[in-house]
Design goal:
The protein has 393 residues and is α/β, with parallel strands linked by helices. The chain is built from 15 helices and twelve strands. The protein has two domains: 223 residues, 3-Layer(aba) Sandwich (Aspartate Aminotransferase, domain 2); 134 residues, Alpha-Beta Complex (Aspartate Aminotransferase, domain 1). Strand 4, helix 7 and strand 5 form a beta-alpha-beta unit. Its EC number is 2.5.1.-.
Length: 393
């Protein structure tokens, strides 16, 4: 059976791996900075691009290539570029596809550092940005300009799990001659495939669910051969925002269990969201699996699961939210997510802490908001740990 006939679970375990002459069963790690050529002519041919092969580990490494090919297969893309972190993946997209004078429309509902990267760093090079409400299609359309090159979204978004209609937004972008870039970190290709819905490029923080155990930093960009395989790869080759072979190997091992883990995350998160919704200390719960979520029906249509992120607002503002967090004894107080261990954080003072009060208000980051990345522990133990602080609140 050829690779393009395999199901998702098989691709997650088998795609991209090419055994060496040693016949290893698991993917090999190539911790080398450079590669040796058989002759000067071969070296020239590889550097000149007329012959495929490894050159220098900044931009060619077999272990990294295994990861790239596996993720591209899972997302349904032609090409993948692996980077040193999720933020460097977004940086590579912006540097690879934009030039001075271009315009970008971005959702307000993105990771706080993404907003700051665009405004404070990319914006210094003559590129302008408009920020709109993720779910307001009229606002997206009104923000488009003749020079709009990219539309950028997270869906579901961090931390309120807001969801946009990817197909509708892709149609809007393409009608303006623009590209749609989707951060698929919360769902992963196990639950959502943006390229199949019309998006042009998918971005990942591999640090999150692709690893799944909080072990390594990494990022990835998936799309077509021209934009990703050429333009964005050029940023990697010349800029060096490179994934290490060891980290690539870790992500390969994580992806092998991705489908199983995402189903388990979804199951635990759904039970926890329903439990939180009925707790008297909780003002509001944000989870796409709840009928009360504004985009619940849309989530059912474009996702095969609702994900592992649950956010909720505690009555009593920041003081009450901190009491809930500090009372936990098992949950990990950390801003990372996508881990087998449940993590808990206060977005207003951590992930979105560097935003201005106005930006926080526009993004819906309330003082009492708590974000959970629901792990794979017993759901009863997770509830028991949260109950301590919720009862105090």
């Amino acid at each position: 059976m050829i690779q393009n006939e395999w199901d998702f679970e098989t691709l997650a375990v088998r795609a991209g791996h090419v055994r060496t002459n040693e016949g290893e069963h698991s993917e090999a790690i190539f911790p080398t900075s450079s590669f040796v050529f058989s002759s000067a002519a071969e070296a020239a041919a590889r550097f000149g691009g007329t012959e495929p092969g490894n050159i220098y580990a900044r931009f060619t490494n077999p272990t990294v290539r295994y990861f790239q090919e596996r993720l591209a297969a899972l997302e349904g893309g032609e090409s993948c570029v692996a980077t040193s972190s999720g933020m460097s993946a977004i940086l590579a997209v912006m540097l690879g596809l934009l030039k001075a004078g271009d315009h970008v429309v971005c959702s307000r509902a993105v990771f706080g550092t993404t907003t700051l990267l665009l405004q404070n760093i990319i914006g210094k090079f003559g590129i302008t940005f408009s920020f709109v409400d993720l779910t307001d299609m009229a606002a997206w359309e009104a923000a488009l300009q003749p020079n709009t090159r990219l539309l950028f979204v997270e869906t579901p978004a961090n931390p309120l799990t807001e969801i946009v209609d990817i197909r509708a937004l892709a149609d809007l972008a393409h009608g303006n001659g623009s590209l749609l870039v989707v951060d698929n970190c919360f769902c992963t290709p196990a639950l959502q495939r943006p390229l199949a819905l019309g998006a042009d490029i998918v971005v990942h923080s591999a640090t999150k669910y692709l690893d799944g155990q909080g072990r390594a930093l990494g990022g990835a960009v998936v799309g077509d051969k021209e934009r990703v395989g050429r333009d964005i790869f050029g940023v990697l080759r010349n800029g060096g925002v490179t994934m290490s072979p060891f980290n690539a190997w870790i992500f390969l091992k994580g992806i092998e269990t991705l489908a199983l883990r995402m189903r388990a995350h979804c199951d635990n998160a759904m039970q926890l969201a329903q439990w939180l919704e009925n707790h008297p200390a909780v003002e509001q719960v944000y989870y796409p699996g709840l009928v009360s979520h504004p985009q619940h029906v849309l989530a059912q249509q474009q996702q095969s699961g609702f994900g592992g992120i649950v956010s909720f607002v505690v009555k009593g503002g920041q003081e009450a939210a901190w009491k809930v967090i500090d009372a936990t004894q098992m949950l990990s107080i950390t801003a990372n997510l996508g881990d087998t261990k449940t993590t808990i954080t206060h977005p207003a003072t951590t992930t979105h802490g560097r935003l201005t009060p106005e930006q926080k208000a526009q993004a819906g980051i309330a003082a009492g908001l708590v974000r959970l990345s629901v792990g794979l522990e017993s759901i009863h133990d997770i509830q028991r740990d949260l109950k301590r602080g919720l009862d105090l609140a």
